[in-house]
TrEMBL record:
Alphabetically ordered keywords of this record: Hydrolase, Lyase
Name of this chain's protein: UxaA family hydrolase
CDD domains in the cross-refs: SAF_AH_GD
The species this protein was found in: Paracoccus mangrovi
Domain of life: Bacteria
InterPro entries, alphabetized: SAF, SAF_UxaA/GarD, UxaA_altronate/galactarate_dh
Domain SAF: 16-88
A Pfam family hit: SAF
GO terms of molecular function: hydrolase activity
Length: 108
């Protein structure tokens, strides 16, 4: 059940997750509620992107689907967009699939 103190466009996939997943787009400059806190969104965000539920420090694990997907690489405030600019993946050491493929080719 969605929380009444959180924008209905945000979906929590598992109770322990540190991020919400967008169920719809959010426009740049829009103010939304994240767990009762008003948060201004600085850039347009699309379906499927992630927003922090709570503050994260560099090194903190980021949980989605109840599992770690990476670590914060910079401070992340509640409502901040969580993406490659502030998240180091636990699955690929690079920020793009192209770079991962290139690195795999170099190691062969």
């Amino acid at each position: 059940m969605p929380r009444s103190d959180t924008d209905p466009r945000l979906m929590l996939l598992s109770p322990g997750d540190s991020v919400y997943v967008l169920r719809d787009q959010i426009a740049a400059g829009e103010t939304i509620l994240v767990q009762g806190r008003k948060v201004a969104i600085s850039a347009a965000l699309g379906l499927g992107h992630k927003i922090a539920r709570a503050a994260l420090r560099p090194g903190d694990k980021v949980l989605k689907y109840g599992a770690p997907i990476g670590s914060a690489s910079a401070p992340i405030a509640p409502g901040d967009h969580v993406h490659t600019h502030n998240l180091k993946s636990d699955y690929t050491a690079t920020h793009t699939l192209e770079a991962a493929r290139a690195n795999a080719g170099e190691k062969s």
